[in-house]
Amino acid sequence: MTSGVRYVLCVSVGPDLAVAEYKLYTVVTRGLLSPQQSPRPVIAPASLVSFDARLLLGLDPRDALPARFPDPFTVDLYKILLSAQDGMEAV
What we know:
Layout (H helix, E strand, L loop, with lengths): L6 E7 L6 E10 L2 E2 L6 E2 L6 E4 L1 H5 L15 E4 H14 L1
Antiparallel strand pairs: 1-2, 2-3, 2-4, 5-6
């Protein structure tokens, strides 16, 4: 099993959650991130961010994944942004 941080996901959200952007870094070696990158917008219809499931879970490359755990593991940041906007409207 490998340990430590493998990904750094930075998300910047504007006032009233009207706009958002993100950067996804991979930890290349301990304490060293992948090269700098420009922010990517979180936009409709989807802003998908994918992670290697084994790295995300701290597993070795040959280790089995838990049952039904997707590889890659994908998150839709736009869907999360919409959910957050809906939550703000309810307040």
